[in-house]
Amino acid sequence: MLKMLVVDDDKFERDGVKFLIEKYGLNLEISEADSGESALAYIESNDIDILFSDIRMKGMDGLQLAAKVRELGRPVKVIFMSAYGEFEYAQRAIDLKAIRYILKPVQVSEFIKVVSQVIQLCEQELKSKAQQERMEEAYRKEVHYEKQKLMTDLILGKAEVADEDRELSMPITGFDGYCYVRMLMLDSRSRFFDRLDPDFERQLAETVRRGFDFIHLNEFQGLLLVEAFAEESLEALTDLGQQLIRWFRDKYGREICIVVSGLVDDVKQLYKEYYAMESMLENKFFFDEGTVLLANRTSFATGDVTAAVNDGLEELTLNIQHNRYDIARLRFEQLFDALQGSDHYSVIYVKYVCSEIVKAIFDASAKKNTDKFKLSLESIYRTTKLNDLRKVVLTILEENESSGRTSAEAMPKAIEEVVRIIESEYNTDLSLELLAERIYLSPNYLSHLFKKQKRISINKFITLYRMEKAKELLRSTNRKIVDIGHDVGYSNFPYFSSLFKNHYGKSPSQFREEA
Known about the structure:
With 515 residues, the protein is of the alpha/beta class. Helices cover 57% and strands 11% of the residues. The radius of gyration is 35 Å and the shape is elongated.
């Protein structure tokens, strides 16, 4: 409802205006003031659409009030009412861009006509403003989608930027005055990023406090591109990561892991840095949730590494006990990479871990060869280089693998079973943990083995498969698009639509129209 302020130092006149408004059903919310000063104070703290004011008043008159309102820059429609018809008043009213000028005594027909015209003018302007805002919002969304699509292509290595026609300069994210960015991979072990509220990015901006763009990768991962500085310390980056971790924990009750990329000043670096971040996440099982990892760094910012190493040894032992030496060998390489790359441990400790692996092999063997066990331990402690130590343990694992070929095809069969589950149950709430449980592997192993076998992460594979299925349904059925989103596993339609457009450069409805 439009709001009108009636200003007159005569209460009888104010009551008369309110009576006519009510009697003739004019759609207005009425407030009143008995002086120009009180009217100005009201307008300074309240929005109004129409100012209906007498001209001749004690103190600040109506003309002075209108001039003050114009100085405030308020788009208020002004109607003057006065018993004086002198030209000087009418002329000044015109100068103040008054909409109408009504003479006292007020003629009812004239009053209704004037006020109705002003109401209509206000409604037309509001309608035009709303339409303009809708057009601007649609344009902003289209630009956002296009940027998301380009950024996604660049990060995933699908965009060719070498051509002169597509030469892109930093910053590509629209950060004014900045030539560097860093990427922060936000990783959740359970489905989360398709369930964010619409106000997520605005609230995130209050935490990041620097220019950023956010890209939806899949339900388990999001990617932040933030303004960066060449001289920024690793401690500052770690602090930013921990700040985000606390924010997600406090606001959503969600623990996330964050990987921070190296400094990027050329779009061609995005794919390389993104790949390094994905590789780093393969080793996230060595660290607790709520950890900040720095890509391409040998030491890690936080996390209980010792507990993770113990967990790794436990998993290795279980695989050895189940005669799955092919998987145990891969798990050892991951474990050794983390130990070798960490500055938390001495060579003696690394050798101790390796000796525990050899002991697990000895304990699991049906025919316990004590002499061979002792020789294996001696070979471990005689090594002078870590790379030699790796080779010694790998040789021991491979020897046992070759003598127990019952699980030689375990890895590819396990991965194919995962693919079968995804292809048949893609419309359900799939997650790495659920899939790992189904095939009796740890989530960490499965993540590593799947990428090794398929050259793509599980989350990315699930997303791509769902997108292909959505494309098929859009082409071959007349089902509602919101239902198609649900059919392929996305109950959040805006998220599904955004993700689809990131992959294909068109919204689902545009794709269907052009198909």
